[in-house]
Amino acid sequence: MDFIIKFAEGFMKLFQTGADVFISWMTGIVPVVLLLIVAMNTLIQILGEQRINKLAKASGKNPLLRYMVLPFVGSFMLGNPMALSLGRFLPEKYKPSYYASGAYFCHTSNGLFPHINPGELFIFLGIAAGIEQLGFSTAELAVRYLLVGLVMNFFAGWITDFTTKMVEKQQGIKLKTEVQTLHH
Fold first, then answer.
1. Any transmembrane segments, and where (predicted)?
2. Residue pair 65/71 in contact by the 8 Å Cβ criterion
């Protein structure tokens, strides 16, 4: 009988823990993401959607801008997961690759800029603790992580371009190479 009681208590604790996490999201990450969406849309309205589309079109033509500069600026300015929303200004053909590069930037820039992805800062801090115990600089680790990330994240996006082409060919489809706007 004790086993059944312990099992029932543990089962309910599982759901209570889930509810606690859900409430923490509602008072933590959800309002932040919501305000970032509002801020980004406000900025787009102030600057003008045509200007943003021109910038995205220019970025879409150059893989270095598309997979190195745009994701880095997005992650630095907007953080995770909002950095990924900048992909909406790219042509459909480049969205999978932008996502690949942008998602990585939210991790590899975190050592120098913890505001980008505070939920995963514990990974960097765990590695940094080991580096500190060895007597090395954590700042040097963060800079190296960022620099390696710049290069590797670019390649993640660029390589995804090639895999996207393969999937297009396999599926017999052609993704659009022009930015599609809501206002024509």
1. 22-44, 64-84, 142-160
2. no
Query: What distance in Å separates the CA atoms of residue 54 and residue 52, rounded to the nearest whole number?
Result: 5
Query: Which pLDDT value is given to residue 174?
Result: 92
Cα of first residue to Cα of last residue in the chain, in angstroms, is: 69
pTM of this structure: 0.66
pLDDT, tens only, 35-93: 777 877 787 788 887 787 777 678 778 899 999 988 888 888 777 888 888 888 888 89
Residue 92: name the closest of 158, 176, 6 by CA.
Answer: 176
**Alpha carbon distance 113, 115 (integer Å):** 5
**CA-CA distance, 121 to 72, in Å (whole number)?**
17
**φ, ψ of residue 136 in degrees (nearest 5):** -100, 165
Query: For tokens 């823990």, what's the residue?
Result: 17
Contacts of 151-156 with CB under 8 Å at 24 or more apart are 152/104, 152/108, 153/67, 153/68, 153/71, 153/72, 153/101, 153/104, 153/105, 153/108, 154/63, 154/64, 154/67, 154/68, 154/101, 156/67, 156/100, 156/101, 156/104
Contacts of 115 (CB under 8 A, 6+ apart): 79
What is the mean predicted confidence (pLDDT) over 163-178? 92
Cα angle 131-133-139, degrees, rounded to a multiple of 5: 40
